[in-house]
Amino acid sequence: GDSVTQMEGPVTLSEEAFLTINCTYTATGYPSLFWYVQYPGEGLQLLLKATKADDKGSNKGFEATYRKETTSFHLEKGSVQVSDSAVYFCALKDNQGGKLIFGQGTELSVKP
Amino acid sequence: GAGVSQSPSNKVTEKGKDVELRCDPISGHTALYWYRQSLGQGLEFLIYFQGNSAPDKSGLPSDRFSAERTGGSVSTLTIQRTQQEDSAVYLCASSLRGQPIAYEQYFGPGTRLTVT
Predict the structure, then answer these.
(1) Which chain B residues in 71-100 lie under 8 Å from chain A, judged by CB atoms?
(2) For residue B55, cis peptide bond before it (omega within 30 degrees of 0)
(3) Which one has a higher pLDDT value, A56 or A41?
(4) Contacts of A8 (CB under 8 A, 6+ apart)
(5) DSSP state of B53
(6) pLDDT, tens only, B76-100
């Protein structure tokens, strides 16, 4: 079945460092890909999405590009802030049903 | 506008008891989803309702779990004869439609269930 694998955390960075969180997927067909973020004490929020190959999703300085050839959707940010500390989830949604399939989540901690 | 709301926010129950968790989706959203977030299993899909179609129950872990959606709006997730492994945060989400695939799912704050 479809699945999502993302790098394990926790990831600890200093403020203004470059961030990459790796995400790869296995799916039949052409899924849509998402990054969700869960800030401490808050609910899941959509961060960005891409619906077809080579699409780039972006929001709040974060970017991810849908790479069909490598089945990847890595999350990047050029300069992280303390306020980016959160758990990040990569997810896919197939084109048959409505459910999201999530990776295991990566905890990011940004130190001042 | 109002987001997805869930109640209760916390529930502690004894093993073997039944529990009901409630979800109020965003008004006008025809698709509703239940997920479970636990330490051991991460975020797992449980069940999906889309309009008047038969729900996708493929994620329900056992027949102790059931859900209904009344009037195309409010949904209740019921867990019968709770077990300790049911302890988790139960998340509800809604979207305008289940398809096309790009519609965003909006998540509620969750219900934290603890089975003692």
Answers:
(1) 91, 93, 95, 98-99
(2) no
(3) A56
(4) A104, A106
(5) S
(6) 999 999 999 999 999 999 998 776 6
Locate tokens 């891409």: which residue? A50
Cis before B25? omega within 30: no
> What's the rounded Cα separation, in Å, for the pair A44 and A47?
9
B7 class by beta-carbon count within 10 Å (0-12 exposed, 13-18 middle, 19+ buried): middle
For the stretch B1-49, pLDDT in tens is 589 999 999 999 999 999 999 999 999 899 999 999 998 778 999 999 9
How far apart are the C-alpha atoms of A53 and A4, rounded to whole Å?
Answer: 16
Check if the beta carbon of residue A77 is closer than 8 Å to that of residue A61.
yes
B59 in A contact zone (CB under 8 Å): yes
